[in-house]
Amino acid sequence: MPDNLSYSFALPGGAYCAGLARGAVHGLLERHGLAGLRDPAVLAASELVAAAYRFTPDREMLLKVHWQFDALRIVLYDQHPAHDEAERSEECRERRSASMWLLAAAVDEHGGDWGLAPALTPSGGSKTWALLHP
């Protein structure tokens, strides 16, 4: 049942982590009866991890896969350092958002949502997510 789908994975941050995320999400959705969301969810997890790796290579990430309010939520926290200047921070956010065009297309196809925000932690970091509806 999807109601008890709630997992978190720490990923070490290497380039190979996108493959680990794809495999984990694929298996979880099969086990929880959400095979219809498998392809866009696997793509979303892969794109979230790949973007985090491009902007913060070789740093640990946290991937969360959760079913809530009849939607699949895939969230990735990374350790991207905060920028000192607001202008530089916005430029970085725009570059990162633009790099996730494939994620945007896949999520849009399924009537979902995605985004990027600063992680609210003392050490900074970023939170990216994808929301998919069945």
How does the SSE layout of this entry go?
Elements lengths: L5 E6 L5 H15 L6 H18 L5 E8 L2 E8 L7 H14 L1 H9 L3 E6 L7 E7 L2
Antiparallel strand pairs: 1-2, 2-3, 3-5, 4-5
Written overview of the protein:
There is one protein chain. The two termini are 14 Å apart. The protein has a 5-stranded antiparallel β-sheet with strand order 1-2-3-5-4. The chain contains 4 helices and 5 strands, in the order βααββααββ. The mean pLDDT is 90. Helix 1 packs antiparallel against helix 2 (38-55) and helix 2 (38-55) packs antiparallel against helix 4. Helices cover 42% and strands 26% of the residues. It is globular. With 134 residues, the chain is of the alpha+beta class. It has helices at 17-31, 38-55, 86-99, 101-109, and strands at residues 6-11, 61-68, 71-78, 113-118, 126-132. The longest helix has 18 residues, at 38-55. A hairpin with a 2-residue loop joins strand 2 and strand 3. It has a single domain (2-132), classed as 2-Layer Sandwich (Heat Shock Protein 90), CATH 3.30.565.10.
